[in-house]
Amino acid sequence: MVKPPKKILIIDDEAVFLEASKKALIPCGFFCITKQDPSEGIMQLKKDSIDLVLLDIMMDPVDGWDILNHIRSHTNGNMVPVMMSSAKKLHPDELIRYGDSMDGFIIKPFLDSELCETVNEFFSFYETLLKISHAALIQGVPESVRKKWVQLNRQIRAMNQIKEILTPPLIIQEPISPEEFLQQRLFQINQIITQKQSERDLIQFQYPVFRN
């Protein structure tokens, strides 16, 4: 039986990037829904089964972070993977604040092959998590534990990847250099990741099925 294509919702207020994303992803076998109005994107997410959201940060009048929070506040969007995109690299404080809610970050402009590879790699990783979670379900592991394990793995992966491309702000309201600022924030981010890894490892110790 042939699996239906993964359904990707792309939310971006610039039509050129909506078309560029579709152009990159459709030849890779994905089904794309594009929305230039963020509110229409949220409505689409509420009524449709979406496998991944690609969400632009720099939108007007509501930015992508507000939309991300809105998505996570609804049942339909609580677990759906969301990758953020922007022409600007992320500020470390953005990763600290929103790292729990996003599954990746895509820098604009992008090559078609890069976007396709990024999305394929995520789905490969995520489907493996879901298979292990299903095996845990068969063994009677509570749903809350399975969801927590999946979320922790998603967060750890995203934060580890995104921390490599962070940039400090041009103006820093502290008596330190941009390099020192970035190192301080990276230390804080690594502490967050370590805590999440400890939580995940505890679950895996309690439920060995997750170690497969």
TrEMBL record:
SMART domains: REC. InterPro entries: Bact_response_regulator (IPR050595), CheY-like_superfamily (IPR011006), Sig_transdc_resp-reg_receiver (IPR001789). Residues 7-123 form the Response regulatory domain. One of its GO terms (biological process) is phosphorelay signal transduction system. The keyword 4Fe-4S does not apply. This is Response regulator. The modification 4-aspartylphosphate is found at D56. Keywords: Phosphoprotein.
